[in-house]
Structure formats: C-alpha cells, structure tokens
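Researcher: Structure for this, please.
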Amino acid sequence: MTIPLRPVSAVEALADALRRRVLSGELAPGTPLPEQELSAAYGVARPTVREALAVLVHEGLLRRERHRSAQVAEVTLDDLDDLMFVRRPLEDLVAVALAGRRVAGADAALDRMAALPADAPWSDVVAEHMALHQAMVVEVGSPRLERLYGVLAAETRLGLVRLRTVYTDRDVLVAEHRELLDAVARGPADAARRAVAAHLDHGWGEG
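Model: Predicted structure, token format:
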C-alpha cells in the first residue's frame, strides 16, 4: 500500500527556507525581513510571504511590531542565562526519569547528526540537536513536561545558532552527546543528573 505524501505549499516552502537561514545564522538577530523584498527574491506573492512570516513569528524565530517589518528575534546572553536557569531543573527531571534507560529516538537523532555531510548547514545540526533532547523529554511520558519544554523551544533553537562558533568541529558536539546518552543509559540517577548538569554547563560564544 502506498501512502500519499502531502504536497508542500508555497507558504510552507518559504517558511522552511527562511527558517533554515535563521537557524544557520545567515540571517543575524535583528535582521529585518521586508515583505516586498522577500516577494521579489523568492518569486512569490506578498500574501504568501506574509503567511510564511506569520508561521515563523508563531514559532518565536521572528518578531513583528505593528507597521514594521518582521525581524529575526534577538536572544541576548542574559536571555540565554535565564533560559538555562529554567531548563536545568527540567533537564534534571528528565535525567532522573530516564536513568538506566536507552532512548532510541535520541540515539537515532544523534546518528543522523553524525551522518550529516561536512558542508551541511548549521540549521540541520540544530534540528537534530533539538530532536535529540525532545526525544528524551517525550520518553519521560509527561505531557506537562513536554508542554513546558516546548515553550522554551524557540529560544533554545536561537541559542543553538550561537553554538556554531563554539563547535567548529561537529565531531566534538556529537561526542559530547554520545557521552550524555551513554551516561543516562548507564545510570544510576545521581550519575545521570551529574552528566546532564555538566552537559548544560557551556558557554554561548561571543556576545
């Protein structure tokens, strides 16, 4: 039996193209995205541009004020420090819940990250990085934890854009996550918690 694929609309295609540019760092924080320029650049109508931008605003990757062009959201180092202040206790819950368990979805995301070609855009690394941590959260089996974690997704992704300057060698990033998943799988809970805490204790690159 064949399963039909849902065709991708122009709005989805444009949103995906812009998302990749944001998450690869090509479009820096604060960069304005005028509808008319995007319409001309991508050869689509302005209503299509407007809808695509609305998708990314909803995701938290863009911000828009009334009567102004949308712009790439800015996340400061203070924002990221506060983000980690909230993420650490959530990740600690994940560590306790998953200690001694292997998370197949997280392993699969890490394998995909490791298999990316050397010239893959950083947005692909961000996607697999997010998929890995999301798989661990989902594995816990708490819908409320998933919702709380989801609220932080946009700022987390924007923070990960900064890490491209920290992890110029992607093999180092892969190795760190391999160590994390192995430590959680081995357990016990205290060791898993220490591994997660150490994993989250990193810098964000230059401000």
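Researcher: Any notable elements?
Model: The chain has a mean pLDDT of 90. DSSP finds ten helices and three strands in the chain.
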